[in-house]
Write a structure and sequence with these properties.
With 127 residues, the protein is mainly β. The protein contains no helices and 11 strands. It is globular and about 40 Å long. The N and C termini lie far apart (40 Å).
Amino acid sequence: QVQLVESGGGSVQSGGSLRLSCAASGYTRSSYCLVWFRQAPGKEREGIAAIDSDRIIRYADSVQGRFTISRDRFKNTLNLEMNSLKPEDTGTYYCAADYVRWSCSGSWAERGGYVYWGQGTQVTVSS
């Protein structure tokens, strides 16, 4: 079993920055597809950034150039550096993991492909 715990959410003004972390514990493997999702009020949960064991990184267009995903393999954490935040970035942010795939592939942003989820952390960006 794998446990994922997010931290680092909070409130920030437009243009500010936040760093989210997701700590993984339990039986993780060298093959992985790790993704940050977010869910805005009244909207579907969407994948915004992914990293896999092939070291390929993918971003949704909405965050490209502003967010940076990274993995610390020694601490077994997944991070999301968020800069130039906008009010539309407001939502609950979740980390998700698949430890079967070596590569995230083109369907990485679909929530159905992940067994393990964190509990979510709230990010609020005010204008």
